[in-house]
Structures are given as C-alpha cells and as structure tokens.
Amino acid sequence: MPNPPSDAAWLTAAARLAARGRPLSRPNPAVGCVIVNDGKVVGRGWTRPGGRPHAEAIALAEAGDAARGATLYVTLEPCAHRSGRGPACADLIAEAAPARVVIGARDPDERTHGRGIERLGEAGIAVETADCAASRASLAGYLARAEHGRPHVTLKLATSLDGCIATASGESRWITGEAARAHVHSRRAMADAILVGGATWRADAPRLDVRLPGLEACSPRRVVLSRTVEDETVETIAAPEEIAGLEAVQYLYVEGGAQTAAAFLAADLVDRLELYRAPVLIGAGTPALGDIGLASLAEAHGRWRLAERRQLGSDTCEAYERARIGSEQCSPA
C-alpha cells in the first residue's frame, strides 16, 4: 500500500485551498485548513470574502464530531483574539478537541503571535509548527505587510525571445497569444491592485481589468506611477516606495512599462517576476527593462530562483521568486 500523505503534503493541500480566498479575504489573510481523521479528509475550509468566516471555523463546521481526535492542518496560526465579527479560532479548535494541530506559519500579528499555539496547548492538544514554503507562499501578501510594511509585488513582463516589449515604432499588441493573455487575466484576479507607469497609461489607455467569464468582479484597483496623471478613476503614487501607503492592498501586480519595471527592480521591491515569452524576434525594439542599478554582473547572480514554468499555447511562462523568500519545503520547527 502507498505511504499515507505527510504533514507537508497536507499543509500544501491547505495552501491550495487558501488560494481560493485570495484576494477577496482582505483585509484578512487568505488561510486554508484541512482536518484529517483516520487518513480521510473530514473538513476543509478557506477564508471567505471580507475575512469571515475564517478557514478553521468552516472546516470545523464541516467536520462536526469527526474533528475530535483528528489532525487539523492550517496554513497560519489560529487567531487568539476575539472580535465582534466572530470567535477566536483557537477557542473553536480547543472546543472541537482534535488530537493534533499542525501549523504552516506563525502569525506575526501581536494579538495572536504565540498565543494561539499557547491556548491550544493549554487545551491538551499537541501542536507542531513548520517552516512551510507552501504556507508562506499562500500568505505572501499578509507576510509582506507584516515584515516589510508593504504589499507583495509581482512584476509581469511579456517579451519577445530577444527581450523586447514592443517594436521600434511602439507597437506591443499583441506579443503573446490568447492563452498567455488569459493567464495574465487570471493573475490580475488574484491581485488587490494593478499598477502601470504614467507613460503606459497615457499612450495605451489600458483597461487593467479582468475579462474572464465569471471573474469580472475580481478586477483589481488601478494605480498609476506618475506625478502628472490626473484621472479620478485611478490612484496615483509618485515613487515605487509609496506602495506602502496603498490601503488594504496585500498583493500588487505591476504590468509596466519598461521604466516602471526597472524602477521597482532598482528599489528591490519585486518579490515575484512572471515572464511571458513569445517565440518571435523583434530586433531593434523597445527593451523590457531600463537601468536597474546593478554595478557589476556579480550583483545580478543569486537574486532569483525559478518557481514555476508552464507552456501557454506557443508561449512560455516562467515565474521567479526573489531569493529572500522562505525555504523550499515544509520542515519541523
């Protein structure tokens, strides 16, 4: 018989559930929870729009009495603070009496940090924490806010094989094909806000919305990096560092152009790079990036690691994460 799934596998499954809550769980993080009893999933949940109910509350309600003696896997330490919007998840779990709780990441919120774990321990529940890359990745926006005081930033570039984002005349629609463009829209739907530079806004008048059937309501807030754009339909910031002031934004999706992309990279504000490449050569076109402030080739190495690669029609998509982002696997703390 095959070996039963490991704790790491169950935490990864919980992280995948958490993705269903992003970004509509704001201002709360998108959390995922799986309850397993005798090798079977008896409850699962993820944070719902507006932040309530929490993932644990949903999973416990689904599990019912089957939660007793089970193992509960959750991507983030269960909250320990009570509010008018609902009970503390640590209290709900203690009442349900699972035998064991495995947590993918500690909560940096001082109202919970360590207190959720302590409350479960006081209830006689065995608690284990893990430094879990899948959990941390699913909480990237929440953790970026807590650790860096700003949103998690994804920079998207769509280029030719020779690294151009437009022809010499400025034509850029469309370098990539329909499948790649649809994937970009799915990524927009996962963001709280989307940002372009002022030159791109003035030249292209981009809609910056989500045009996938059923996901139109997930269109992110629109932000322009410019001191001169005056448009009531968008927010403006004057410098990349001002993203810290974008209220209720955990995930920011930056789409360019070249100077805006370079400005975010030069400020070391990009956490994830999503590079779409079409099998075309442009030659004397517009390069994807301007100066990003590197003084030597040595400075360029070691900054990025490949996180994902996929084929989208005739185009390829590669995602790279900044090397400062967590570990490669779940491991006991």
**Largest sheet, described in full?**
8 strands, mixed
| Multimeric status of the protein | single chain
Number of domains: 2
Series of H and E elements: HEEHEHEHEHHEEHEHEEEHEEHEE
Question: Class of the largest domain in CATH?
Answer: Alpha Beta
Structural class of the helices, strands and pairings?
A: alpha/beta
Q: How large is the count of helical segments?
A: 10
Work out the strand percent.
Answer: 15-25%
Provide an overview of this structure:
The chain is α/β, with parallel strands linked by helices. It has two domains: 7-145, Cytidine Deaminase, domain 2, CATH 3.40.140.10; 151-322, Dihydrofolate Reductase, subunit A, CATH 3.40.430.10. It has helices at 7-18, 55-63, 89-96, 115-122, 133-138, 140-148, 178-188, 198-204, 258-266, 297-300; strands at 32-37, 40-46, 71-74, 100-103, 126-129, 152-159, 164-166, 193-197, 221-225, 235-237, 251-256, 272-277, 286-287, 304-312, 315-322. The strands form three sheets. Strands 10-9-8-11-6-12-15-14 form an eight-stranded mixed β-sheet, with helices on both faces. A five-stranded mixed β-sheet has the order 2-1-3-4-5, with helices on both faces. The active site is at 56 (proton donor). In the N-terminal section; belongs to the cytidine and deoxycytidylate deaminase family. Pfam families: dCMP_cyt_deam_1 (PF00383), RibD_C (PF01872). One of its GO terms (biological process) is riboflavin biosynthetic process.
